[in-house]
Protein 1
Amino acid sequence: MKTQHFSFTADDWRAGIFAALKKQQVQQMAYVPDAGHASLISACYADGDIGCTVLTTEEEGVALLAGAELGGQRGVMLMQSSGVGNCVNMFSLLKSCGFPFVTLVTMRGEWGEFNPWQMPMGQATEETFRRSGFVVYRADTGEDAAAMTGSAMRLAYDSNCPVAVLLSQRLIGAKDF
Amino acid sequence: MIGRRDAIAEILMDRPDNLLVISGLGSPTYDVAAAGDVAQNFYLWGAMGGAAAMGLGLAQARPDARVLVITGDGEMLMGLGSLATLGAKAPANLAILVIDNEAFGETGGQTSHTGKTTNLAAVALACGFRQVATAYKQADLAGVKQLVLEDAGPVLGVIKTGSDELPRVLPERDGHIIRNTFKTALANQQNGESK
């Protein structure tokens, strides 16, 4: 579903991530929404060449992008750190078959977190990825986020491995209530 | 009572060239392999709950192909949310076929939710699937075959079957080999078409 024209605001570093995804010819984007990904999600919907799929739970996205790769398309999953734990057994699909996979993860449960319920999964996110066989990048600046997204795509689709780019809560801004 | 292995053999008999099959772990993988171990089959041996979502990714990447996910009731129940995701995307080239023995057959035959209260065809319909059909007896199979191979998706067929244990037919288990075999078959097919 292509929506109306979308443009990033001048100070939105997600424009760099989107440019990197386009340069790497991403054709499928799967997501569980997060406020930190909102403009990027809108940009993908407005793009005629990226198919967007909203998921009910993050593990669907792992299987979905494996299916996309079987069919010859590159993909990316957008999620929040709280969704990483939902994926753990499904990550075995990536390792068992050597599927490339890239996910961009907005972090909660770290810098300035207000909600204690976000802490357990936020603090376990990086370790969970590493134990599941991922290469993990952590971006604290918008510039890094764009560069790491491009590198993650190359690493995944040229070297057949799963890669996670963590977008730190310091970068995104701690949520105010 | 419909025999599961014969039923899958009938569904996949003379399968069209553009049919891609993903099988859910356990008995559906054995049933699909028994019907013909071809390169256009992707056998899952794990990733429980992911078969339908994987089918969606493949169907979106290959609109020229018909994608058929053949799985069990337990596997489908674990990915129940993916029926909502499929309904929302409404891929015309995607079909799900559930071999429903109302039991967790691999683990001792414990009664599953479909043996109690859950009707997977009704769930799919409520999620926005275009059509569903359930086969209770042999005579219903032709209709389900037509549904999952030809009708505009997303569609979901259910075959109600017994919980008898059949000899295991074990296809390749190495996921790297399964993936490469499948991708090579797709590439060859594409090259063949462009000649």
Protein 2
Amino acid sequence: MTLPYETEIPTGTPEEVSAQAGRKIQGRSPWILAWLRLRRDRVAMISLGVIAIVVLAAIFAPVFASITGHPPNEQFRETGLTEDGLPKGPTGEFVLGTDDLGRDILVRIAYGARISLLAGVASTALTVIIGVIIGLAAGFLGGVVDTILARLIDIVLSVPFLLVAIALVSVTGPSLTIAILVIGFFSWASVARIVRGQVLSLREREFVEAARSLGASDRRIMFVDILPNVLAPVIVYTTLLIPVVIVVQATLSFLGLGLAPPTADWGGMISEAQAYYTTAWWFIVFPGAALLITTLAFNLFGDGVRDAFDPRTERLLVK
Amino acid sequence: MIRFLIRRTALGVLVLWLITVSVFALFFVAPNNVGRTLAGRQATPETIASIEQRLGLDQPLWKQYAHFLGNALKGNLGYDYYHQVPVTTIIGQALPITVSLSLGAAVLWLALGVFNGVLSATRPRSLADRALTFFALFFYSMPSFLLGLLLLYFLYFRLTLAGQRWFPAGGYLPLSDGVGPWAQHLVLPWLALALLLAATYTRLTRGSMLDVLGEDYIRTARSKGIPERRVIIRHGLRSALTPVVTQFGIDLGQLVGGVVVTETVFSLPGLGKTSIDAINQQDLPVIIGIVLFASAAVVVANILVDVAYALLDPRVRLH
């Protein structure tokens, strides 16, 4: 066996060294390192699996409908309701039971996943895009622009979000687009604040000076040089924002401001189930569980992502 | 300090003004048929016109706004469209309920959150820590309406079925009816709010406590032979609480507008439920009044948080 100091340290260009047996040089970007850490996190990986299942259920919702033979909005008044016209519990035909109108809860949960995921991803994307652009502009351009944008951030942060969102949606009438827009337009401020803080210190760094001395435009420096450096906290924030947004959308639906019936959506289903929770537990339990499992999976996964990007937390725990 | 207070108050006034403008604009840009709703289905166009004239709805928009703003500066927020009750009276009636709900819940969630957080942080990676972290995340992921309904199901419906009438299904009794009945009606809503928010505080306390316990002065304290309990409570907790206090102020401010869901689920006629009812009836003066009041609460809470921050941590300077 050769000891480490007995082996010759290879010299030459990276290409030549890599060519030697057992001497593969592999660059590992922070992204790869984060992914490697994330992959070892069992809880995060299980959560990712759960999220994948929800996504698949949403994509293949029509398959659920065709296998069971129950379209999501079809009311089975003969077979789906008891003789007294009450919801039917889980049976062979209706695996998760029926709701107050004799509709199949399983199929409606699958269709509801579409709404929750769409709202979660679309509003989060909108939030992050607005937040990053405003945060970048405020932090990098400084001066009057920063003063105005920073005040704007303060203002948006002190709006009682849920009240104003409800007021807005009640005026425009319930629709998914409006809900997504409202959530996006009121949540960007915290992203902008995080980005602005990071950019304020980044813009003093040498690589920005170097880019400027090479004649790069402001826009190029902002998006090509600075943006990649603020992405890690933004990604962490994004994964943790998705479950929050899903809950907000479900809350709007629960208050009757989400989607026009009969569209299947988890918040709306729970709201309809309210009147029946004493007689038909399945009506509220299954949509509720779907919502809770989804947000829990996103939160556990987001926690894993944060630990992966910030190994400091791990070290603290070991100590 | 005084300059800071003046600047923040000015900003707060600007925020409130912008909110009145946007809510006002919102409700008049959208089709508005208050006159028709009030007059009933059989009304002639003349009746509708006379009602609109009485409410000042026939005036140009800017005149209505100027009228509203002039009165608001004098402390008069207008009268509701349906019963001509002053909006300030409506807020005055609803406020004690929201305050009872918020403060009671605040005591619970602070106690729960800080206690669990310290417990977790002093035994990192133990079974207790993992269990508490999981429960924190579980409740953090739970939509508030779902938690409220679950509490109603198990602690009201199931208990009552079992012959134990411990809690009512909802409603509110004023404090003047006695502390017992008052608290009995509020226990479930308190729990619904506190369990959700305690989760955030557990995580926050745990994180900041772990940071603090790694500091040199904690080692100094331990090496001086101070008992561990005293090190944790006197030396550790004191500085670990700073971010908790900040978050507490922000949350308490947000609660005025944020208890909409809890109040709806437990039918408590506080500010949140009143505003939902007003929104459903397009009762503009009430909506503006409550939104304005809730925003003012956020603004004031944010200023107080900054001041408290400077008082707790001498390193922070306000400017």
